[in-house]
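Design a sequence for this backbone.
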């Protein structure tokens, strides 16, 4: 008996969104997508009931932007349980540890049910761990009833995200709900850092947090206009215009490189004389290399913080990372200042690069190597390797123009492995450059945001294609 069959007895108890009985028109999809996004944003700003915000530092500060997480709100966990579950199960399925035939409707339904079940269990475990760790105050202080209530709030918020994601993926909306929430959270962060009206006393007077508002404010209150421009461009510890321009530059580069591809001419044997294009993008694995690299680094952060706080004076534990607490408005967060965690984290600014060039070089080499390895590995476990693509083309009776039927894999092997590794390196390089330049939202966040927005743009374009064109076999193959 396959392991996936263990889900069968409880599959009917797991909540599910039914598929639409008829085709959902474009306007309705836009409406459902907008409503899902609005609900997520409301929950991202709705505080949890019954908490007492502890004075401790935020151990997940460095990951919150890309996990669509807001501290102290219903979206405390963000999409981390769902993303973690999806990636782990796909890795298990791709490596044949969990045998699932996705072409079989029954096993596909069971696999989806297993993803949701594990996602809900991870959400429950993470919510309980958050409460027991004292992140919302000591359990004895907030009371057992409040502790259970907080866990329940986080669990049902996770269930809501799961249902919204399934709602959009079942055809009621556009794209993936998880991707939509991540992109919107990153965009929200960038817009807030640019236009935030919050005022902060920096020691040189009161300034706006938002880079653009701060520029106009400094130009108005400073008598020395050149000094005002210099402050707006290079002020420390707050968003500045240089950060904003770096963000715009990286956005433009990512959008430009999204269109780099090699188009292979293919023939469809069913319809003689019909030809089409099979595109292999430079970003063949999309944003998966940087997601996996980020997940790897996040685990290093988590383990090193746990060890350091357990015994901060241990020389062995310091090898994994030394941590310091810094203030950020009313909240504090931990940043690595030594050890492995420090060297796999980006330099805080260009000035830090010159002060510690070894840190900058190590971070560059680590990120590029990790992204290249993860890019190659992901093709093997996600069903996009040369062998898998050649099999899919053979099943659809598609062959390479000018080559024998048996040469498809050989032709693909010239492009796919290179695209997977080189694409991973390029994504890693863009991330490093963005971090070095101090781009708002981090290099990883910007890469995720651009690739997700590009995927939604392609989904919008597909929705606008007439139905008769969608019916063409090569249109489906090319996409």
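Sequence:
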């Amino acid at each position: 008996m396959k392991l996936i069959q263990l889900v069968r007895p409880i599959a009917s108890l797991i909540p599910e969104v039914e598929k639409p009985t008829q085709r959902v028109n474009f306007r309705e999809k836009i409406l459902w997508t907008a409503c899902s996004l609005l609900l997520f944003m409301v929950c991202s700003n709705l505080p949890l009931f019954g908490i007492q915000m502890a004075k401790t530092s935020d151990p997940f500060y460095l990951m919150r932007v890309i996990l669509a997480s807001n501290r102290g709100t219903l979206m405390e966990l963000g999409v981390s349980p769902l993303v973690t579950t999806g990636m782990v199960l796909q890795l298990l399925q791709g490596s044949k540890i969990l045998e699932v035939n996705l072409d079989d409707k029954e096993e596909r339904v069971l696999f989806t049910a297993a993803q949701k079940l594990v996602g809900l269990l991870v959400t429950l475990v993470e919510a309980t761990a958050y409460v027991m760790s004292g992140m919302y105050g000591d359990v004895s202080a907030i009371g057992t009833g409040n502790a259970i209530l907080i866990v329940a709030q986080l669990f049902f918020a996770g269930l809501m995200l799961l249902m919204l994601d399934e709602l959009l993926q079942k055809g009621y909306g556009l794209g993936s709900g998880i991707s939509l929430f991540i992109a919107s959270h990153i965009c929200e962060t960038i817009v807030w850092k640019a236009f935030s009206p919050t005022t902060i006393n920096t020691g040189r007077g009161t300034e706006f947090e938002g880079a653009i508002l701060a520029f106009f404010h400094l130009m108005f209150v400073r008598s020395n206009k050149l000094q005002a421009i210099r402050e707006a461009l290079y002020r420390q510890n707050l968003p500045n215009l240089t950060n904003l321009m770096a963000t715009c530059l990286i956005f433009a580069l990512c959008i430009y490189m999204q269109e780099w591809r090699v188009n292979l001419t293919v023939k469809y044997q069913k319809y003689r004389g019909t030809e089409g294009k099979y595109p292999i993008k430079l970003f063949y694995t999309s944003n998966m290399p940087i997601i996996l690299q980020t997940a790897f680094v996040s685990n290093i952060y988590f383990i090193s913080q746990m060890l350091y706080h357990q015994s901060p004076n241990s020389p062995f534990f310091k090898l994994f990372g030394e941590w310091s607490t810094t203030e950020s408005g009313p909240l504090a967060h931990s940043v690595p200042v030594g050890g492995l965690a420090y060297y796999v984290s980006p330099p805080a600014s260009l000035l830090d690069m010159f002060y510690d060039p070894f840190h900058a070089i190590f971070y560059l080499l680590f990120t590029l190597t990790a992204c290249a390895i993860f890019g190659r590995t992901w093709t093997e476990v996600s069903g996009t390797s040369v062998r898998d693509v050649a099999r899919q083309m053979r099943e659809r009776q598609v062959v390479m123009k000018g080559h024998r039927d048996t040469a498809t894999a050989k032709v693909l092997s010239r492009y796919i492995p290179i695209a997977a590794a080189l694409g991973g390196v390029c994504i890693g390089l863009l991330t490093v450059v963005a971090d070095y330049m101090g781009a708002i939202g981090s290099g990883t966040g910007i890469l995720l945001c651009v690739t997700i927005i590009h995927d939604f743009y392609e989904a919008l374009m597909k929705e606008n294609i007439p139905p008769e064109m969608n019916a063409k076999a090569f249109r489906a193959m090319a996409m």
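Strands lie at 199-201, 206-208, 261-268, 275-281, 322-328, 331-338, 398-400.
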